[in-house]
Write a structure and sequence with these properties.
- The protein is an all-alpha fold.
- The chain has 2 domains: about 1-110, no CATH class; about 110-165, no CATH class.
- The protein has 7 helices and no strands.
- It has helices at about 1-10, 20-30, 35-75, 75-80, 80-110, 115-130, 135-150.
- α2 packs across α3 (about 35-75).
- The longest helix is centred in the first third of the chain and has 39 residues, at about 35-75.
Amino acid sequence: MIPILSDIMVKDKKWFTEDEMIDIIAICQGLPGVIAINMATYVGFKKRKLLGSFVATLGVILPSFVIIVIIAKGMNFIDGNSYVQGALGGLRAAALGLILIAVYQVAKGVVKDWFSAVGAVSSFVLIAVFKINVVYIIVLFLVLGVIRVYTSNPGSLDNSDHRGGDR
């Protein structure tokens, strides 16, 4: 779903730049809950404030809800049907392909130097292999990012030219 949303919001609608979209994905991935709902709520709010977030969230939730209700009603047919099981297997493969495309697109925009490359790989290893909580990884790399900026440009934290500084 992320690659489709990125294409629509960045290339088709031109609502966001690639960098803004990467930031949106990062923010929504870090929030608890389903990323599609988080993204819909966030983007809806950015475009049309409270009403936009409500309508966008409803637009993501409602189709899935209706489909689940329909599937639940026909579960006896689905459960024993080998054609349906084969179709679901194909859908799983397609979903994995979409996830890999999303990973590639995000990596292409994020991995720009050795720090981000090492950070991406080590984050993956720490989470996938060592089962470290994602929150700790986010906090760790927030701190490392600030340290990196400060050590490469001492005094940069006091600079008022940065976004969010005194203007």
